[in-house]
Amino acid sequence: MPATFQILPDRGIVYIHYSGYTTTEESLAMMRAYGAHPDFRPAQRTLCDFRDVTDYDQDYVKIIEHQSDIADIVVPETVEMMLVLLADKPKGREIANLIYKSWEGVTSIVPVIVDTEGRALEILGQPERRIADFLAAHEKN
Predict the structure, then answer these.
(1) Could you read off the pLDDT of 38-55 as tens digits, one per residue?
(2) What 8-state DSSP symbol labels residue 78?
(3) Is the pTM of this model over 0.85?
(4) Taking the CB of residue 38, how many other CB atoms lie within 10 A of it?
């Protein structure tokens, strides 16, 4: 599946990984599954990894609407959520930029675009500098 998530409840973070050809419908279905997961908590810090995206559904109106649907699922209006968008290639960067722009002016979402794993984890306050190490540390707990 091109969009997957892993909740790390001990860290208060959800890691979302996109790969291949990503569609808005698949992404929204994944977000609904995330919102229904027992470890889901509103406004969990989020790391979206777009490094493995090869292309995406370029219906920009649908993408912006999708962000509104996500907000309804995961972000109460009274809580601030850190959203780190990791993208190091052109297609992933395009998606990250669209998502970033869709949250401009929304005070409850704090989006940041980065191009390295180390920077993404640093912003989230994590000691690891590679996502594989970050996920492995969670598996040990």
Answers:
(1) 999 887 899 999 999 999
(2) T
(3) yes
(4) 6
Distance CA 21, CA 124 (A): 27
Q: What letters, b where the CB count within 10 A reaches 16 and e where it falls short, cover 11-31?
A: bebbbbbbbeebbbebbbebb
Closest Cα to residue 51, out of 139, 131, 137, 138?
A: 131
Return the higher-pLDDT residue of 6 and 27: 6
Please, what's the b/e burial string for 82-120 (b: 16 or more CB within 10 A of its CB; e: otherwise)? bbbbbbeeebbbbbbebbbebbeeeeebebebbeebeeb
Are 45 and 124 a contacting pair, CB within 8 Å? yes
- The strand pairing partners of 20, in sequence order, are 53
Query: What confidence tier does 61 reach under pLDDT thresholds 50, 70, 90?
Result: confident
In single-letter form, the type of residue at position 120 comes to A
Closest alpha carbon to 85 in 97, 67, 75, 77:
97
